[in-house]
Amino acid sequence: MKPLKNSRFFAIILIALFSISLSNCSVGVRTNSVKSKPLPPGQAKKITGEKSAKRYAPGQNK
């Protein structure tokens, strides 16, 4: 009966070590926040279908 107890003991120890090793493997999920830049005036003009981009260029106040 001793070999049976020894094999159970080793099985329990192996399961415990395996579960501990799995619990230490944590995967960090990073969310990359995309910093959106303002649209260039030409792109805004294309989206809206206007002929001039002057409306979308903040420095152009003519």
Features:
62 residues, mainly alpha, 2 helices, signal, Quinol oxidase subunit 4
N-to-C span:
97 Å
Which percent band covers the strand fraction? under 5%
How many structurally independent domains?
1
**Number of separate helices:** 2
- Number-wise, the strands total 0
Classify the oligomer.
single chain
Question: What is the succession of H and E elements?
Answer: HH
3D shape: rod-shaped
How large, in whole angstroms, is the Cα Rg? Answer: 32 Å
Task: Give the biggest sheet.
Answer: none
Task: Pick out the low-confidence regions.
Answer: none
Which structural class do the helices and strands define? Answer: mainly alpha
Binned, the helix content reads: 40-55%
Global mean pLDDT: 79
Task: Note down, in words, how this protein is organized.
By secondary structure, the chain is mainly alpha-helical. It has one domain (7-56). 48% of the residues lie in helices and 0% in strands. The chain is built from two helices and no strands.
Question: Would you spell out the secondary-structure blueprint of this structure?
Answer:
Layout: H1 2-23, H2 41-48
Structure at a glance:
This protein is mainly alpha-helical. It has one domain (7-56). It has two helices and no strands.
